[in-house]
Design a protein that fits this description.
CATH class: Mainly Alpha
Strand content: 5-15%
Structural class: alpha+beta
Distance between the termini: 49 Å
CATH architecture: Orthogonal Bundle
Radius of gyration: 21 Å
Number of helices: 17
CATH topology: Cytochrome p450
Length: 410
């Protein structure tokens, strides 16, 4: 596998290029295996489906941010400094246990209604059509830059009524922060500070000049007199902006990448448009946009699938590992858009199940469906040479060069 520290594998370039092979080997050996994350954090990696579901939903695996620094320092080996995140970006519901999580989720759910999401459908289609008009005129494009990134970032920015004029800066900050423990710690801290300052300005603007948008609803959401405070609003805006586009970028790009290479599956989809929702679910299972769920730690010794994970251990649940577990999904390394992929872990499981799942599904269906309705899509680079983002958290292509040929009148 490459580098080792204290006899443990360090997740590095081989892992970024093909995590599935690595997860398959670990699944054969144990439900959870001790590894070292890129910046020297010793952690337990869970790669089997049933044990992943357990770890995602069991209260013995904590996510509360207050003990993160202590637990991370306890598990730091190999001479690296523990990764430090800007404090104002961590106090969101993904980093909390009940009752704190329950309180925040209730307030956010109040603003993030199914009706509000469904009302976005015509606008998502409109943005997709415009982006594909522009891409079609060029013919040869990087589909990440032409569609997969601009669609979800435009949607979430409009949802939050956030100006798009700093979109490129935001993308740089987001990439650094999603890289987390993989990249340069100074760049991470600089990105965190810049992001926090930007979001603080937005929160203040929404507080004094509310509009009919999701962010204003969040700033002014009230549950029996309870509101989000300043740090909670900054952290929640960070979570929604980053999670609201990063995962969907990868869903769209991963879906196009695999379907454009699999003629049989693509022709099935084109022959029966009713297969589109299932195709999106299968893409989510097959190449999960989130490779590993965000950190958890054990607040007591926990037995998981015959493995005892000691108290105060960092635990990383591999969503993509669970989704390729053959005991749950037969023939797991084959893309099959007619498969019953329900129950996959791409959006997590338990109380932290992704609040934005309906929005991501809608964006994925509209983007992938419209693209293949309008164009024949041909990869213009050797698929084996395309670079995947060098991070453990997410699974996404850095670039997706394609040639688009119109399929005739729409």
């Amino acid at each position: 596998m490459g580098e080792k520290i204290a006899g443990l594998d360090v997740l590095g370039e081989d892992y970024f290029a093909n995590p599935h092979a690595y997860h398959a080997r670990l699944r054969e050996e144990a439900a959870a295996s001790e590894i070292v994350l890129p910046r020297g954090t010793r952690a337990w990696l869970v790669t089997r489906y049933e044990e992943a579901r357990t770890a995602l939903a069991d209260a013995r695996f904590s996510k509360h941010f207050d003990r993160f620094p202590e637990v991370m320092a306890h598990n730091q080996i190999g001479g690296h400094e523990p990764t430090k995140f800007d404090e104002s970006l961590v106090q969101h519901m993904l980093n909390m246990d009940p009752p704190h999580h329950t309180r925040l989720r209730k307030l956010v759910t109040k603003a993030f209604t199914a009706r509000r999401v469904e009302q976005l459908r015509p606008r998502i289609q409109e943005i997709t059509d415009r982006l594909l008009d522009e891409a079609g005129e060029k013919g040869d494009v990087d589909l990440v830059d032409a569609l997969a990134f601009p669609l979800p970032i435009t949607v979430i920015c409009e949802m939050l009524d956030v100006p798009l004029d700093r979109r490129d800066e935001f993308r740089v900050w987001s990439n650094a922060l999603v890289g987390g423990g993989t990249g340069d710690p100074q760049a991470l801290q600089a990105a965190g500070a810049a992001m926090a300052g930007y979001l603080a300005e937005l929160v203040e603007h929404k507080r004094t000049s509310p509009g009919d948008d999701f962010f204003s609803a969040l700033v002014h959401a009230d549950e029996d007199g309870d509101r989000l405070d300043q740090l909670e609003l900054i952290a929640m805006a960070f979570l929604l902006l980053v999670a609201g586009h990063e995962t969907t970028v990868n869903l769209i790009a991963n879906g196009v990448f695999h379907l454009s290479r699999d003629t049989e599956q693509l022709e099935k989809l084109r022959a029966d448009r009713a297969l589109l929702p299932g195709a999106v679910e299968e893409v989510l299972r097959f190449e999960s946009p989130v490779n590993q769920a965000t950190f958890r730690y054990t607040n007591e010794d926990v037995e998981l699938g015959g493995v005892t994970i000691p108290k105060d251990s960092v635990v990383v649940v591999s969503l993509s590992g669970g989704n390729r577990d053959g005991s749950r999904f037969p023939d797991p390394d084959r893309l099959d858009i007619t498969r019953q992929a329900a129950g996959h872990l791409a959006f997590g499981h338990g109380i932290h199940y992704c609040l934005g799942a309906p929005l991501a599904r809608m964006e994925g269906e509209i983007a992938i469906g419209t693209l293949f309705d309008r164009f024949d899509v041909t990869l213009t680079a050797d698929p084996d040479t395309l670079p995947w983002r060098p991070v453990t958290l997410i699974r996404g292509l850095q670039t997706l060069p394609v040639s688009l040929t119109p399929r005739g009148a729409r």
